[in-house]
Design a protein that fits this description.
The structure is a homodimer of 110-residue chains. The first copy, chain A, has 110 residues and is of the alpha+beta class. The first copy, chain A, is built from 5 helices and 3 strands, in the order ααβααββα. Chain A has a single domain, classed as Arc Repressor Mutant, subunit A (Orthogonal Bundle). Chain A binds a DNA duplex (30 and 30 nucleotides) through helix 4.
DNA sequence: CCCATAATTCGAAACATGTCGAACTATCAA
DNA sequence: TTGATAGTTCGACATGTTTCGAATTATGGG
């Protein structure tokens, strides 16, 4: 498979991971690491444990786990066990690439 | 439904539209309206007719039509008949919103 | 008016996704 | 070691998606 097609597929997989409202809500929750209009370094990204992250979403634990696995498979989030909990945080590199995807294609004049 | 949920759903629908490699390729083709690192105004966005847009993708006309309808339903592209052809171009407003989605959530320090 | 070209709609088949509950694994505390 | 808490895996079911070919609509040329 050509490099072009690999990139398209990879990017499509990321969009697919964000195409479900529940997953998008989870991702967004992880993304809002800073107070608006402030910046943070990648290692300051908010960490939520799985349970807290799913709070208020009204989905079964098994469904929550499935969704987080999808986000992880797409490279959008990182996960690491810490004691009884599993912590999740956003993969900032991938987020940067997502932003880059839109910018490299079209630059619109003001 | 709350405004928050409406936005999540709307944004998820856009990502879903871009989650298929064929659709993403079509969208990207429309997005590359300018030569790299130059800017264009919204009305300068490249127009492709449906047939040309699907060139090289090896999909049936009915499939192509279906994919473009999905992109249109998500508000990502505009379509207009011009004689025998139907012209497509990118909805720059929506593109801007997509970019904004990522930026409003996380600002990463260099 | 008929025909060719461009695109859409429809129906069907194969496949993928979202969701749950039940059963399971991992960790820590008493 | 036993029990409680946190997550994951599995199987099943309903629903949605991708794709095609065939039939249909739209448009302009001769």
């Amino acid at each position: 498979m050509s490099n072009y097609q690999t990139n398209i597929q990879c990017q499509a997989d990321r969009f697919k991971a964000l195409s479900n409202p529940h997953r998008l809500a989870l991702y967004q929750r992880l993304c809002t690491c800073c107070t608006p209009s402030t910046a943070c370094t990648p290692d300051e990204a908010t960490r939520f444990c799985v349970g807290d992250l799913g709070e208020g979403l009204d989905i079964a634990p098994s469904t929550l786990s499935h969704h987080l696995k999808e986000l992880h498979r797409a490279g959008l989030i990182a996960m690491q066990r810490n004691g009884k909990n599993v912590e999740c945080w956003v993969e900032t590199d991938t987020l940067q690439e997502m932003i880059g995807f839109f910018h490299t294609n079209l630059t619109i004049k003001d």
